[in-house]
Amino acid sequence: MPLILLSALNRIALAAVTLFGVAVVVFVLLRVVPGDPIAMMISPGSTPEQIAQMRANYGLDGSILSQFWIWLKAILLGDFGTSISLRRNVLELLAERLPATLELAFAALVFAVLLGGAIAIIGTLVRRTFLEPVIDTVNGTILAVPDFVWALALILVFGVFFPVFPLSGRVDPSVQNDFFTYFYLLESPLTLRLSTIVDISSHMIMPVLALGLPLAAIIARVLKEALLEAMVQDYILLAKLKGKSNLRLIMQEALRNGIGPTVALTGVQFTFLIGGTVIVERIFAYPGIGNMAIDAVINRDLPLIQGLVLVFGALFILINLGVDLLVAAFNPRLRHA
């Protein structure tokens, strides 16, 4: 069995164990912290019998061990329970909100990769000139500002002073019911709805910038260091003697050999980017799972919180697994092992 396939199988098994551990920790913590989710649902005139019946309906009348066992069996059967605050199936809620977060996160990732890659290449081309410290200073400034601060600044500039983009939401309410799926950004070009693409993009520009700018700065810094290290290698000097320009050296030689560490770090940072959508979605009232997670915590909606944590955990694990496979694909020694 190839080494890369064996490594992938080992990581999948480890991912299942990790996800189970996350489920245990979250389940226990949610039940030992102060507060009663049922108390937030009952009306002032509810009788003790009605309260007990409601606890039984949500499976909160047994011991922690029995509650966990019932919940785990339901999860394995695809039943994530019913949201206490929204009175809806948790799996349906996740299916509605997850596509919005995934589209936002991937759009921010594409923007960050393109911008960060461009900055790194330009910074490598102008090395040892007066422009290099200027680019490094601008990049460092972008990196120092958190995503939520970028979000507030973008709202102030492009939503208040110069109202160019919508301040909240994902799409205009008048067209929201015209979609067949919840992947609005993916579905719109497939159905040739150009006006809808413009509307969705205008709603996403500010959240994408807020999430993507700090990641772009990280990518630029790491990729530039990798390119500078590659540019002094013997194979680069040999290619330079053949008359290749600096841009061709970077794009054809150095970039191919320096992209591995950048891919690894980008994958790790992408998991943090998905976690960062919680605050950014809240600021822009973006209807993703991050925004819903804050409401779930405020309302102490145990079934919804548990489902959200499992989804976030599964996303982190899948992203890290995908990054490991990409790193192996870019590394010839691992690919041919």
Automatic annotation (TrEMBL):
The keyword Ion transport does not apply. The chain crosses the membrane at residues 12-33, 106-128, 148-167, 204-223, 258-284, 304-330. Keywords: Cell membrane, Membrane, Transmembrane, Transmembrane helix, Transport. It is a multi-pass membrane protein. It is found in: Cell membrane. It comes from the Bacteria. Residues 98-327 form the ABC transmembrane type-1 domain. InterPro entries: BPD_transp_1_N (IPR045621), MetI-like (IPR000515), MetI-like_sf (IPR035906). Belongs to the binding-protein-dependent transport system permease family. This is ABC transporter permease. It comes from Neorhizobium turbinariae.
